[in-house]
Amino acid sequence: MDGLSLTREYIDIIEKNPKRYYEDYKKTVEKAANSNAKYKGKPIPFLYQPMFFTEEDIDLFKKVGKILMSITNKVTNKYLESPQYRKKFKYPKLLEELILMDPGYDINIPIGRFDLFYGGKDKYKFIEINTDGTSGMNEDNIFSDILLESESMKIMKERYDISYFELINSWVEEFIKIYDKFNNKVDKPNIAIVDFKESGIIAEFETFKRAFIEKGYNAVIADPRDLKYRDKKLYYKDMKIDLIYRRIVTAEFIEKSSEIPDLIEAYKDGSVCSIGSLRSQIMHNKIIFKILHDEETLAFLSEEERELIRNHIPITEEFSGDEKIYEKVLKNKDKYIIKPIDSFASQGVSAGRDFSNEEWEEILTKCWNKDYLFQEFIDPFTRPFVQFEDGELKVRDFNLNIGVLMYNEKFSGVYTRISRGNIIFGREEYFTVPNMLIE
Q1: Mapped to the 3 state alphabet, what secondary structure does 42-60 carry?
Q2: pTM to 2 decimal places
Q3: Residues 6+ apart with CB under 8 A from 244
């Protein structure tokens, strides 16, 4: 039993009675539209099919996550200890200063999601590592609840023990465990979920807010510009804030730093606990894939860690400097993608094979010597999924993007997106599918 064979079994169920399942599919779409699985007020697209995982898959994710966390801690320590090593990251002065500050607890990545092209067993390649701003937990759990009650999954539940990864309360529990290590902790901290209002995923924030409140904490959702620092205490309106769940991506934090002086001052003073700290940016920035392949980095890692990097992290280089680099990427467009050194949601990412020679040259000209990376193109692994179009059943292969979630350095669940394209752009260009563990 593996994920692909389970997928074929599920599709076979649908194909035997497509009219019945189309009617049920319409009900699930209505349930999803009426849920709070929304992005910027719009329902998040999903399909009438989950992603199936077995215990073998989960064991691999746990193993990979453990190795990755070990690499993270060694790289972070090297960054903190070595001014020379820090230069590889090319961070602005403020960000470097904030990274070097002691956050008051000992976890470098409290929450993270490493995205993989995954084909089962040892067939996987890293896409990127997400730390600050890690999202998707709310929609996964909502879609899992909806699909588990579908007619098709009722048949699967007769054959197997099926569960999904609870991602909300489990994070709240780990979040509080991390805070318990904070140097200046209080018994019952007031919590603020913090992000810029124009960037935040409000539906997900509301779900976490409710979860914190149900655990007995005062919790608010706050724009960082509304936080005020006075008498060595940080406030949102009249509420003193002891603990921040930081959802601001670091790039935006630094870009808008002039707008959030109170938050920065409180952070520097250690008057508020921020989970995560700015140290998470060390692994979040896309240049980390280049740095991991550097001989200086490989030298202080174990053989197991070096093997993970060599075999599973794509070769990545800066798209700048010697004109030979430009020519290599230009003339071998199908072999490469271009991406900004620091961005999120696939902004600014282009795959050469998606463009004509003329279009590719235009893209490269705009990106040359402007904080971009080029990376070897990895053919995604695919899996068949059912779709209904005007009531007709279609079965198509989709590219898989498997996000493995780590809470407090432990495997916690999976977040899967699928797409027909080479790059996932925006919320309209892919489907979120819930993840099921089959036993």
Answers
A1: EECCECCCCEEECHHHHHH
A2: 0.92
A3: 191, 192, 193, 194, 272, 273, 274, 275
